[in-house]
Amino acid sequence: MRDPYLVIKSPLLTERLDRLQPQNIYGFWVDKNANKIEVKYAIEKIYNVKVVKVNIMNMPPKRRRLRFKEGHTASWKKAIVRIKEGQTINIG
Known about the structure:
The chain is globular and about 50 Å long. It is of the alpha+beta class. The mean pLDDT is 95. Strand 4 (63-66) and strand 5 (69-72) form a beta hairpin. The protein has 3 helices and 6 strands; from the N terminus they run αβαβαββββ. The protein has one domain (4-83): RRM (RNA recognition motif) domain (Alpha-Beta Plaits). The longest helix has 12 residues, at 36-47.
């Protein structure tokens, strides 16, 4: 297994994910080459919690314009993680 700190880049702090925290659901920005098994292992090692389920999404690039030039943001991967009932992750 890879180093957990290379798999998990940072937690995602959005209003939608903030509303899901009472249901033990958290979001993370993860490495583009990470799979569900690596994400589960990394979350369990970093935060000392038991992961029940992992969903991963590839986020496509978005078009952006800067003055007269068009470009795009980088694509990235996010993971939505459900942890065991009664456990929490302090992200704040």
